[in-house]
Amino acid sequence: MYSAISKAKTAFFVGLMLFGLVNEARSQEQVTKSSDSVARKSSVEEKFDREKAFADFKKLMSNSVLVGNFTIVGKEKKDLTPEEYRIAEVKKLDKGDYWSFKVRIKYMKYNVNVVVPLQVKWAGNTPVITVDGDEITGLGKFDARVVIHENKYSGTWSHGKTHGHLFGTIKRAEPEKKKGSAKSSDKK
User: Is residue 102 very low, low, confident or very high in pLDDT (cuts 50, 70, 90)?
Assistant: First the structure.
C-alpha cells in the first residue's frame, strides 16, 4: 500500500513539475515572440524616414485632386454624392503636426477656395489627415480622419450631428478652365 500511494504522489509531483516546465517554456517562447515583435516594430520605426515621408507627402498632395464620394450615415442611397478637393499646395508648418492646405473644395452646393491648417498624424509610415473641430471658412466646423495610401484616400467625417464616410483617388491636377469673371469661392 505504501508503494502505491508513494508511486501516485511521485507521479503527481512529476506531472506538476513537467506542467511547470512546459508552462515556463511557453512563457519563454511568448517573451521571445514578444521581443521579436518589438524588434520588428523598432525596425519598421527605424525605416520611417521623417524627412522623406514629409517630402513624399508634400509631392503627392501638392498640385493634386482628390476625387471621390462621401456618404451620410442614416441617409443611405443608391447613388453616392461626389466630392472634389483640388489641392494647389501643401506645406509643413512650424507648429507641431500642422500642414497648410491651399485647397478648392467642391461638394453639393459648395465650391470654395480656402487655405486651412490641418494636422497630419502618422500611423507608421501612413499619413492621416486629422481634423478636430476645425473651422473651415465658409463651411463650418468639422471632425475627420482621412488615411492617405497609394494614391487613395478613405476616412470618416462629421459636421455637427451629421457624419459619414469619404473615399476616392488622388490624381495629378490638370489646369482648370477659367469661366468668365465668376468667383470660384462663391457658393453655387
Answer: very high
